[in-house]
Design brief:
The chain has 12 helices and 6 strands. The protein starts with a helix and ends with a strand. By secondary structure, the chain is of the alpha+beta class.
């Protein structure tokens, strides 16, 4: 198993760096995402951030080619390890100075820096060091043990997908919806006069609760479901002051039957959930809000 891992490490690392590098270099979204990254805050320029992101992507592509073509040469692996170490340093500094910004790791993420970005950078560092030391080629592992190689590559791909926040919409959100359906919390209610989700979002965004939470919210609607008569609307955000900011999930709950014709200001419950630990964040200012229509969510 160890020989299979070291033998296929160049292929896995090349796939990861080839993907992130190609997105940075060739995607038109790079220039659009650059202003939202911690790099733009550090360089104080969106244009310079775009240039650095594209140059980094070109370096990733070059390393990926080296890992595929000359995997037994220690240079591509060592270069990947140095790149991974640089990523970790950048993420740590970016989390400290601009916690509300994205990392720009794949030039398509717009969520704040979380543990998953650090884990992916660590994979690049450890993988590069492994390749540099082992100096194995990947083709014997594929040709001599095709079944084992296929299983290993599939598992590695699953791990890398799980560590990529920008791919959540393709697997994590559908998985959550499926789980809610299976365990009795369908996305769609059974009432024939159910209020559309878009109407609930419009009602929420015109409420006092939304005004109170708007400084924290950093995304459009990410997920929604119904639970015991409540419609749950989930967003991502950043909570806390600049020095203690941390990424959170911002969860609103309002009456699933509430509409524009049922009242001017619905009761809305708010909960902040730490994106790293999954624990609820105490929000004292919500409890102290003057409006009785804004309530912290229980639990």
């Amino acid at each position: 198993m160890l020989s299979l891992t070291t033998g296929l490490a160049p292929l896995v690392l090349a796939g990861l760096l080839g993907w992130t590098g190609a997105v940075k270099v060739f995607s038109r979204g790079t220039a659009q995402q650059a202003p939202k990254t911690a790099l733009a805050r550090m360089l104080r320029s969106s244009e310079r951030a775009t240039t650095v992101l594209r140059a980094t992507g070109a370096g990733e592509l070059l390393i990926a080619v080296g890992l595929l073509v000359v995997p037994a040469n220690p240079v591509p692996g060592a270069a990947a390890a140095v790149l991974g170490a640089g990523f970790l340093g950048y993420l740590g500094y970016g989390r400290a100075v601009a916690p509300e910004s994205s990392c720009g790791c794949s030039a398509s993420e717009d969520t704040p820096i979380t543990w998953r970005a650090f884990a992916r950078a660590a994979v690049v560092l450890i993988g590069g060091a492994t390749v540099a030391v082992a100096q194995d080629t990947w083709w014997p592992a594929v040709t001599e043990r095709p079944a084992g190689a296929l299983a290993f590559l599939a598992a590695a791909a699953a791990v890398l997908v799980a560590l990529s926040a920008d791919l959540d919409r393709w697997w994590l959100l559908p998985l959550r919806r499926t789980r809610l359906r299976v365990f009795g919390h369908p996305l769609l209610g059974t009432a024939t006069d159910q209020v559309p989700v878009a109407a609930s979002v419009e009602l929420l965004e015109n409420s006092l609760a939304w005004q109170a939470a708007a400084p924290v919210v950093r995304s459009a609607l990410l997920d929604h479901w119904e639970d015991d008569g409540w419609r749950i609307l989930q967003y991502s955000g950043v909570y806390g002051d600049r020095e203690n900011a941390r990424p959170v999930a911002v969860v609103f709950a309002l009456d699933a039957t509430a509409g524009r014709d049922t009242g001017d200001d619905p009761i809305v419950r708010i909960s902040y959930v730490d994106a790293d630990s999954g624990e609820a964040v105490a929000v004292d200012e919500l409890r102290a809000a003057p409006s009785r229509r804004i309530l912290p969510m229980a639990g």
